[in-house]
């Protein structure tokens, strides 16, 4: 598989031209198939098989990860050899979310109840797959300046995420730089958003169990008013936490679930709360467990509730390395001009791509997926999420150009 207008020598003067229409159509069909068959974290068996089969058809040798989902694939060099030339890695996440797809009029809406690719991982996967197919053709012709490793990672949507398992399986051995994209419905298709330094935030999970003796709602003074205790934890803990750290660090606690009680006249014996802790600053993230647990305990004790707190470490911020951002910008400008790149802000979303960047330099770009001219405000993790599929072509061309430009030792 090759592009329509390549020069004989790789480099900035030999960046790929327009993606062939046949490949473009194939990739859109592949993405729609994934969209119709979403799989949750560590259950991505069908997705893994589909990626593997397509890479093998291109003459490549993908290696399924030890857990049975996700895979690695080397292009150029000696597949699977970490002691060979240094590699540029391209990472995609392949799992979906446990929410219903509500795009009723969409021909390729999810066929799996309460499962949806509502974060664009089907696009990320297709972009890296398409890049691999293009680069395989270039490698056959001797036009790939150095080896490239494709990383298809399972379980990004759960904490602490699947990145650690992928790294433990040797994904970064022999890798000198790693790149990724993430769909952004606030950026027009045909453009990318870039930022040096932190581009996402840290994200942890907290689970709280509150207990008391229970009793009659006529006599709350004789027992622990557990619903009130849970309500005070829910409302007071975020405010208290925010006053115990530098406000510029953006530490926030937000609840996603509160559950207690079964009858209007019975004070329950048990209540549960679940939420996420997010933070802009790495130093404050390291302090967050102690700060959060102490605040919750204080409020629970004030209301005579026994608290059991499970704090699950998630991910640090994704911190983009300057040289890797420059590489992405150079590649995108070379392909689509200076107007195709815009600055982006740091978000409070979490991404386990950060664990790769704890070990090797790299960067994540925001891939525009909003139809140009659309004014509707859309967001990720919603059941009606969809993309302008032109973004797939843009992502493939971005990564292909980056692979041709990158000549780091």
Task: Give structural notes.
It is a single chain. This protein has 409 residues and is of the alpha/beta class. It folds into 2 domains: 277 residues, Aminopeptidase (3-Layer(aba) Sandwich); 114 residues, Alpha-Beta Plaits, CATH 3.30.70. The protein has 9 helices and 16 strands. The strands form 4 sheets. An 8-stranded mixed sheet has the order 1-2-4-3-5-16-6-15, covered by helices on one side. Strand 1 and strand 2 form a beta hairpin. Helix 3 packs across helix 9 and helix 5 packs antiparallel against helix 6. The longest helix is centred in the last third of the chain and has 21 residues. The protein is elongated and about 80 Å long. The two termini are 27 Å apart. The relative contact order is 0.19. The N terminus is likely disordered.
Short structural summary:
The chain is α/β, with parallel strands linked by helices and 409 residues long. It has helices spanning 21-36, 45-57, 121-140, 163-168, 226-242, 282-302, 322-336, 354-357, 390-405; strands at 63-64, 71-75, 87-93, 148-153, 175-188, 192-194, 197-198, 202-211, 215-216, 252-260, 266-267, 270-279, 306-315, 319-320, 341-343, 362-370. It has an eight-stranded mixed sheet with strand order 1-2-4-3-5-16-6-15, covered by helices on one side.
């Amino acid at each position: 598989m090759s592009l329509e207008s390549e020069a004989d020598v790789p480099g900035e003067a030999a960046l790929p031209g327009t993606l062939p229409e046949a490949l473009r159509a194939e990739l859109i069909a592949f993405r729609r198939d994934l969209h119709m068959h979403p799989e949750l974290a560590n259950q991505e068996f069908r997705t893994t098989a589909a990626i593997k089969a397509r890479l093998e058809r291109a003459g490549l040798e993908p290696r399924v990860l030890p857990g049975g989902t996700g895979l690695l694939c080397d292009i150029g060099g000696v597949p699977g050899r970490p002691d060979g030339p240094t590699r540029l890695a391209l990472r995609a996440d392949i799992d979906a979310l446990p929410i219903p797809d509500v795009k009723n009029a969409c021909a390729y809406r999810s066929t799996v109840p309460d499962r949806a690719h509502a974060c664009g991982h089907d696009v990320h996967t297709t972009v890296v797959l398409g890049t691999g197919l293009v680069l395989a053709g270039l490698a056959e012709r001797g036009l790939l300046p150095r080896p490239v490793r494709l990383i298809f990672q399972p379980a990004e949507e759960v904490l602490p995420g699947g990145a650690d398992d992928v790294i433990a399986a040797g994904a970064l051995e022999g890798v000198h730089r790693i790149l990724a994209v993430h769909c952004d419905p606030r950026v027009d298709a045909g453009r990318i958003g870039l930022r040096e330094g932190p581009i996402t935030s840290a994200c942890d999970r907290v689970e709280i169990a509150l207990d008391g003796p229970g009793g009659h709602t006529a006599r709350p003074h004789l027992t622990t008013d557990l619903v009130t205790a849970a309500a005070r934890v829910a409302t007071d803990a975020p405010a208290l936490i925010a006053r115990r750290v530098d406000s510029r660090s953006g530490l926030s606690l937000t609840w996603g679930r509160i559950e207690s009680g079964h009858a209007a006249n019975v004070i329950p014996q048990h209540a549960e709360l679940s939420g996420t802790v997010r933070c802009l600053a790495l130093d404050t993230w390291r302090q967050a467990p102690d700060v959060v647990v102490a605040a919750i305990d204080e409020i629970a004790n004030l209301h005579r509730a026994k608290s059991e707190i499970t704090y699950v470490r998630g991910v640090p911020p994704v911190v983009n390395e300057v040289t890797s951002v420059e590489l992405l910008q150079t590649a995108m400008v070379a392909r689509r001009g200076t107007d195709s790149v815009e600055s982006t802000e740091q978000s409070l979303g979490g991404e386990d791509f950060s664990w790769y960047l704890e070990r090797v330099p790299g960067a994540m770009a925001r891939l525009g997926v909003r139809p140009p001219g659309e004014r509707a405000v859309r967001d990720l993790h919603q059941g009606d999420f969809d993309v302008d599929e032109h973004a797939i072509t843009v992502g493939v061309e971005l990564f292909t150009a980056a692979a041709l430009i990158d000549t780091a030792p």
